[in-house]
Amino acid sequence: MSGIAGRWPVARTEQNREFLAIADLHAGYGAAKVLHGVGFSVAEGEVCAILGPNGAGKTTLLRALCGMVKVRGTLRLGGTDVTGRAPEAMARLGVAHVPEGRGAFAPLSVAENLRLGAFTRRDRAGVEADLRRVYDYFPILRDKQREPAGGLSGGQQQMLAIGRALMLRPRLLLLDEPSLGLSPLVTKELFGIVHTINEEERTTVIVVEQNAHLALGIAHQAHVLESGRIVLSGTAAQIKADDQVTRSYLGIRVRP
Questions:
Q1: Which of 48, 63, 99, 151 has the fewest CB atoms found within 10 Å of its own CB?
Q2: Which residues are listed as membrane-spanning (predicted)?
């Protein structure tokens, strides 16, 4: 592991206490081990960016956090040990996962897709209120609410995927490569909406993203994964300011 791991402390305050705690996390697929002792924490209401090259284990980390892969180590959410919980149980605890590739149910209408996101809820009035809230964030979805989801553009399908996750009323929102396949203009708009959601709803967000500049622009803290291990952690501002480090670990510049 690099000698600069943990080089910058991530700020904490008494009012913004630890919400998600990950310790010595190992995960993989059968005999193939992907994550090797990952550990960090995220305060409630923070945005945390997970950066790194392809194959570093970023997607596996999100899958581990929502119960999609078997793990060894410790996961705590809001002070509760949730290690090894199944995906449905994690959803009921308020963990919403937007996977890479969006995954819209193409034959169903936009509105039907959104309502599927509220499958764990029984508060009908609240669901209707949140549906209106999603339409406020994404007006194009209101305009196309009766149309099949399969007819949406890539950017609109990504908005639909995030909107469906919001219908869960999540405490923790996991976003896997939200900019994948989108134009720069749509990507910038989408990240602006995610920032607004975090600011207005105080939803804790973990975003895996290749566009380091945009991810660090909305994040409070960031961690760089390499070969399944965290090699660099710090505040988003600190990592963004160190151009030499980001080029070494990400292979890209984060400054526009």
A1: 151
A2: none
